Amino acid sequence: MASLVSHPDEIRVVSKRFGQGATDLDRYLALDGYQAIQKALTMSPDDIITLVKNSGLRGRGGAGFNTGMKWSFVPKQSAKPKYVLCNGDESEPGTCKDRLIFEHDPHSVIEGVMIAALAVGSHTGYIYIRGEYRYLSLIMQRALKDAYARGFLGKNVFGSGYDLDIYWHGGAGAYEVGEESALMESLEGKRGIPRIRPPFPAVVGLWGGPTVINNAETLASVPPIILNGADWYANLGTPKNGGTRLFCLSGHLNRPGVYELPMGYNLKKMIYEVGGGIPGGRALKAVVPGGSSTPILLADEIDVAMDFDSLAKAGSMLGSGGVVVLDDTTCMVKFALRTIKFYQHESCGWCIPCREGTDWLKKTLTRFHAGAGMKKDIDNIYYLAENMLGKTFCPLGDAAAMPTMAFVKKFRKEFEDHLDGKPCPFEKTADPVMA
Amino acid sequence: MLFSDEFEARFAEMLTHYPTRRSTLVPTLLYAQDEIGYLSDEAIAELAQRLDLTELEVRNVISYYSMLVTKPRGKYNVQVCTNIACMLKGGEELLNHCKHKLGIGHKETTPDGEFSLEEVECIGACSWAPAVQVNYDFHENLTVQKMDEVLDDYKNKGGEIL
Amino acid sequence: MPDVTLTVDGKKLTTPAGTLLIEACKSVGIEVPSFCYYPNLSLQGACRMCLVKIEKMPKLQTACTTVISEGMVVATDSDEVRQARKSMVEMLLGNHPLDCPVCDAGGECELQDMTFSYGAAESKFMEAKNHKDEQQWSPVVYFDRPRCILCYRCVRVCGEGMDVWALGVQNRGVSSVIAPNKEDHLECEECGMCIDICPVGALTSGAYRYKTRPWEMNHVGTTCTHCADGCKTTLGVRRSDTGMEIVRGDNRDKSGINNDFLCIKGRYAFDFAHSTERLTQPLIRKDGKLIPATWEEAFALAGKKFAEIRAAHGGEAIGVVGSSRTTNEENYLLSKFARMVLGTNNVDHHRTADFPALAAALHGKPGQTASMRDVLSATAILLIGNNPTEQHPLLAWQIRSNVRLRRAKLYVVNSQPIKLRRQATGFAQIPAGAEAHAVAFLAGDDAELDPLVHQSATRESLLALRDKLRAETGLVVAFSSEVRGADVAKLVQGGLVGARFIALADYANSRGAADMGLYPDLLPGYEPLTADGRFTQEWGPLPTVPGLTIPAMAAAAKAGKLKALYVVGSNPVARFSLDPFAFSGSFVVVQDMFLTETASMADIVLPAANAYEKSGTFTNTCGDVQLVKKAGEVAGVKSDFEMIVRIADAMGFEVRKLVPFGGGTRADMGQSRGAQSGEADRHSVWLEAHGLEPKMSPFDPVAIFDEIQRLVPSYNVSRLDLLAGNDQPTDIAEAGPGAAHDPNLIIPGNDDLFSSGTLGRYSHTLNSVMENKNAPTPSEVAAD
């Protein structure tokens, strides 16, 4: 069980039931649970969608697309059944927030799926949880069972005449399955290879039916929006970036943890006040602001509002809310290598630039870090990443390319310090240069 | 009898959740693996037959997912995360420590069949790094000393896996 | 669909809505490169080679997955696009072994071509390449992972195209690998489609690998000599000690009716031609033993004996057995030779379908025969009997492709749950041997319903099936040899409005043998012996009493009445289980490639060339006429055509009457030297266009083809198209009235996917594949 933290600046919307025993259905009900869905049942689907659209809620998985807008793309009429899919395949390095939601407040996700289903006219939902999170699957399965037992799910939910089934589904270890079309493939019992888009899932998704896919945090944000209104939520954050979000603070911090802060919260403040600053009084070197795929920010770039648009302006991305803090003892070549090693391992292999590009980046960085690098390797690393960017079948290639380009651009000097057989300047113990 | 009653009940229920039988495949494979320890040829043949798939299709899927294996491994699979957040907090030292302590490398199994070791990618414990999963159990905010205690606990535990 | 106008590289083009951008570009001659895109297979978007710039879109887009839209402005040759292609090739080559000097695909490799066209001269990367050892998956399929670029063409053609699904993708990322269905080997139909479709040398053929370099071969497009479907196969030939060796069969130019398709036989089973057991010297029986002799000796003896017997006992004392694997020209010539030179109507061949009944049923009713191409475009297909997957692989491919790509409806009536039922919208499993009942029922005879009720075929389902069939317009009906005699007429007249028919025979030129009159009671074109003056005008007076069938010839021989037997490319002793001693009193001449059961009892054995070693035409089971072109060459053999002419000559017959040669200009058909792909076709067209066809030799089949076109009306097809290598459908309605024959004379060949009558016995590839299969059943897997 992951430990909880708190900070006075937190605004608890999604995390308000954390630590409150809300896995228990009665406890959840006592904490306003299943109020939003009952309210939603009195609203028209269009009104729900408009409300969510106006709240400024944007996808918490990383891409940051307006959630209400996404729902509005689902056709009203469809010959095939429509589906709502909760993406709980959390696996972007630096990110550990959905885990807490599933652990402490599974019913909020269920309720979010229900409202989404109502909004798009779907009668079936799935909550996909990554395979490693087995204990969370058990929690979710129990929560679903409890909800069915009370008649909140199944036929005639809350006596409304609306039928709605929601099921749990489990993964088995694949980052790529977090990509929405790969997730659908996986749910259909296949290899997690993304699909050609268009058509987009909202039109042709699971088993060919129109499908809404949202991140678990996104869906858990929906019930409070329904209860408290679009303006309330929108005003918590910055323009076009409604609400709060769970920031996962990790790395070299005195108080790492998952904090719910308003959108647009200042990153510097987040590191030094919420996260308690760098241990041992060491200097900040860089920050990965939104999970490992987001371009790294230098210490002098952190006076930035943590919302989608501000970070885009700063040349990075808000991503999945994983804030990884690096102090000055960190070797950036090694950090780049570890980042790439992940994407090389997780590339599905479908397209050439991602499959081959990540492999070559990993090989070159491995050699480079071991002290056998050449000057032209630095340019080659950048060249490779640049030629992957925007050319791969799905965003995984970009996720590998973007941070790599930032590493080379921002830390070229440090790369050069590894040249000419020099040992890694950050290696504490004297590793042999070449094994 | 290849699978437990519990497995069969879960499988039967899952079949009712989807419009296609095949959709049960990924979670079912993981549950099957939990029972047998790995996905044996026999289990693959059985599940393929149950889901109207070829064994090739089942193997294609198995080989895609990093948690699924077709060879036996130790009773306790020690999965050390070394991804960025854990790396910054000593994940690699933890991995090296486990290698020395268990006397095995990445994806190897101790001769007594008790432990396997695996360097894994992010397991979603970044804020509590460094972290290790032994089978499905998370162990977080680890140090070398705490790691020793964790391993010793399992060693003394025997039996229960989950 | 309405047209859409878009701009590509400044060119305006208008194409039907729904067209893929890559195809739209192709239509105006703009090549957008790709590895994974392959027409008629599912889209992948995997290789990223076809990235193009579309205005208003921030990222480059794959032309293979983009459907054109009105006003789209596309750049396929900008700096950005060129750089993208270059980098894709660079990344591919990063892990590619670059073993082109020893790779089978070297010289005809798409990766080489792409590297040449779009790649970089400089190699940026210097890391160790990932290696994996080569694997042998079957006697004919080898896989070399390092060369593989993961375009997934093989996986798709095996699954979507062949419905075999024997290949998959395993692992992920850079460890991704194409995997066979039995972990380390393949259990499949061994069609080799995966090898042909592979753009690089990752999948190579056990028959061809490391044998030669592509540029050392000449390529001859000819017609397959195995089953009756008539696939075009391009044979790669190379000089050898004994002539021209065939080293490869493929259809990469997709120029035939089979487009992409070839089965194991078309692709690999040319190797019977190089069997060490081939006869390469004439043999004459002396003191009970077959002893090598000279050609002159053999022809002189054959001519002398035939002439003597004809003089002493009349033509009716001589029997002639023709072949289902010799050319139309040879069959026609043999039919003519028998009637004109030997003076006999004792002419027959091994019949595997009742074409005379079809001719009778369709006589004067044009437009009711279907070509092999029609099977691909028909809106509905009814298959009665037969298992095309095994017996008519191209027909099965056409059916599957039509169902998959055009949503044709397939109805199957069969006593077995044949594999094609997976494509069927209607399947009736009838009792074994009930095909005739099925035909009668379909024709409206409700009394025939009860005998059909069987397994899942209930009264209701059968009646519903018949209703559906009657409602179909544009139905193509293919029926097995079980439907014969009067049943053929019943089927044709039986209320399937607008239907077109295909009778399924078993051998490469079974249809040609029937069309060319290898019957005791029919002249070429299903004309009765007493037909109008067409034949007597050209051939002179002919015997008018119907001759003997093969079994009757054996009986006559046994009774001492048949004094001579002339067998051309056939093995009646084995096929009809004849008593070989029945002919011990007869003078027997056999032309064959091998010492078959029939040849072993002969007095003279003449070593024959096969269809890959001579020129002429074949007619497939649908009636499509195609060119047969000389590709291979083996010293010591002669074409059946030449041998027939020489025997006539040795009998003292004036050869020019038999073969109306002469008249053309001396020229060279360009066949024996082999030709680069298409060259022979072009050469022939040029000769025809300039009136320079040769016909200068008595051994020239074109002289006989001239006569066929003159005397057999259905064969009056376009010579230009034919010589250009195209298939030319014939309409049996234009043929003579046919005849009713004893249905028992039809004996199915019973070959499957891995056998091919006598040829199969001598094919090393077919034999090794057979040995490799524990159970020779086709793989049965779930359709996806």
Sum up the structure in keywords.
heterotrimer, A: 435 residues, alpha/beta, 5-stranded mixed beta sheet, 16 helices, 41% helix, disordered C terminus, B: 162 residues, alpha+beta, 44% helix, elongated
**How many helices of chain C does DSSP assign?**
27
Query: How much beta of chain C, percentage-wise?
Result: 15-25%
The largest chain-to-chain contact, stated as pair and per-chain residue counts, equals:
A-B, 60 and 43 residues
Structural class of chain A: alpha/beta
Q: How would you describe the shape of chain A?
A: globular
Please outline the major beta sheet of chain C: 7 strands, mixed
Whole-number radius of gyration of chain A? Answer: 22 Å
* Radius of gyration of chain C from CA coordinates: 28 Å
Could you tell me the strand content of chain A as a percent range?
Answer: 5-15%
Low-confidence stretches of chain A: 429-435
N- to C-terminal separation of chain C? 29 Å
Shape by Cα distribution of chain C: globular
Could you say which structural class the secondary elements and strand pairing of chain C correspond to?
alpha/beta
Q: Percent range for helical residues of chain C?
A: 25-40%
Could you give a quick summary of the protein structure above?
The complex is a heterotrimer of chains A (435), B (162) and C (784). Chain B has 162 residues and is α+β, with helices and mostly antiparallel strands. Chain B has helices spanning 5-15, 25-36, 41-50, 55-62, 84-88, 91-102, 144-157, and strands spanning 76-81, 108-109, 115-120, 132-134, 137-139.
